[in-house]
Design goal:
By secondary structure, this protein is of the alpha/beta class. The chain has 2 domains: 154 residues, NAD(P)-binding Rossmann-like Domain (Rossmann fold, 3-Layer(aba) Sandwich); 115 residues, N-(1-d-carboxylethyl)-l-norvaline Dehydrogenase, domain 2, CATH 1.10.1040. The protein has 12 helices and 8 strands. Strands 3-2-1-4-5-6-7-8 form an 8-stranded mixed β-sheet, sandwiched between helices. The N and C termini lie far apart (54 Å).
Length: 282
C-alpha cells in the first residue's frame, strides 16, 4: 500500500526530503495556504502535491513530517493536534529533547503516534545524502518509507528525545564551532590583528580558516539557527552542563539575521564588522 506523507513545510530541507519520499513511491502532500512563492516553487520542483489547507493534508495523510524552523515547531504541533490527526507524526526539527517530549505530548493528546526525529547533513539529493535519526514507537515505519533513498534513516530505540539529543549534540559542535570562529575573527578585526591571526591559522589550524568561509556562505541561514542554538543551550542546561557557549552562539547568529534575504553571501570583512557591537553595527 502506497503511503501518503504530508511535509510541513517544504523549505529547502523539507522539499528535498519530500522529493526522496516521492521518488520511493510515496504520495507526498504539502500545504500552500500562507506559504511563500519560494516555498511553492520548491514544492513543485520536488513533485509534491498541493492540497491547500492543513486540514485537507491531515485527513489524507498516514504520516506527517514536520520540518520547520525550530521556533515554530510547538505551534505547528498544536495546530495538527487541534485538527485531530491520528496517524504518525514525526517532528524532525532542531529542538531540545524536552521540547520534543512536549511536542509528543501535544500530538498524542490529539490522537497521533509520535516519533522524535533529527536531520543531520545537507538537503538530500543526487550529490548529497543526509541522515534522519528517529526514536519512538513507529520509527521503523519511517525507515521503510525512505529505504533506498538519499535519506538514510537511523533508529535510536524507543525513547522519545534520543533523536533530538543526537541532533543537538551534533549541531552544538558544528554550528557552535562556526559561531566561535566568527566571534574570534571579529575580535581580531577589531584589534587590528586579523591578518596575523589568519597567517597563524594557515600554519597550524587550517580548519579554522575553512570555518571562516562557512560563516560567510551560511550567513543567509543564520536566522534559522538562533532558535536552534537556544534549544541546544536548553539541552545543555537540562544535562547540568554550562550553556553559555550556545547562548553566545545564538547571539552571533542573531547579529547575522540581517542577511536572511541576501542575494549572495556577504563579504567576510563586512560580516565580521557586523558582529562587533563596538562598531555600532547591530
Amino acid at each position: 500500500m502506497t503511503a501518503t506523507l504530508a511535509i510541513l513545510h517544504p523549505g529547502e530541507m523539507g522539499a528535498a526530503v519530500g522529493a526522496c519520499a516521492h521518488a520511493r513511491g510515496a504520495h507526498v502532500l504539502w500545504v500552500s495556504e500562507g506559504r511563500s512563492e519560494a516555498t511553492c516553487r520548491r514544492a513543485v520542483e520536488a513533485g509534491l502535491t498541493d492540497v491547500r489547507t492543513l486540514g485537507t493534508a491531515l485527513r489524507a495523510s498516514d504520516v506527517v513530517l514536520s520540518v520547520c524552523p525550530p521556533h515554530g515547531a510547538v505551534e505547528l504541533a498544536r495546530a495538527v493536534a487541534a485538527l485531530g490527526f491520528r496517524g504518525l507524526f514525526v517532528d524532525a526539527n532542531a529542538v531540545s529533547p524536552d521540547t520534543s517530549r512536549e511536542i509528543g505530548r501535544i500530538v498524542e493528546g490529539g490522537g497521533a503516534t509520535f516519533v522524535d526525529g533529527g536531520i543531520v547533513g545537507p538537503p538530500p539529493g543526487p550529490n548529497a545524502s543526509s541522515r534522519l535519526y528517529v526514536s519512538g514507537i513507529g520509527a521503523e515505519r519511517i525507515a521503510a518509507l525512505f529505504a533506498g533513498s538519499f535519506v538514510q534513516v537511523l533508529t535510536l530505540g524507543s525513547a522519545i528525545g534520543a533523536a533530538s539529543a543526537l541532533k543537538a549534540c551534533y549541531a552544538a559542535w558544528n554550528k557552535g564551532a562556526t559561531a566561535l570562529v566568527a566571534a574570534v575573527r571579529a575580535v581580531a578585526v577589531h584589534e587590528g590583528v586579523d591578518a596575523a591571526l589568519v597567517e597563524a591559522w594557515r600554519d597550524s589550524q587550517p580548519d579554522a580558516l575553512k570555518r571562516s568561509e562557512i560563516v560567510r556562505t551560511s550567513a543567509r541561514k543564520a536566522w534559522r539557527w538562533i532558535a536552534e542554538m537556544e534549544e541546544i543551550a536548553a539541552t545543555f542546561a537540562s544535562a547540568g552542563v554550562p550553556d553559555g557557549f550556545q547562548r553566545a552562539a545564538a547571539e552571533i547568529y542573531r547579529r547575522l539575521a540581517c542577511y536572511k534575504d541576501a542575494s549572495a553571501p556577504p563579504p567576510l570583512d563586512e560580516l565580521l564588522r557586523d558582529l562587533s557591537a563596538a562598531n555600532g553595527r547591530r
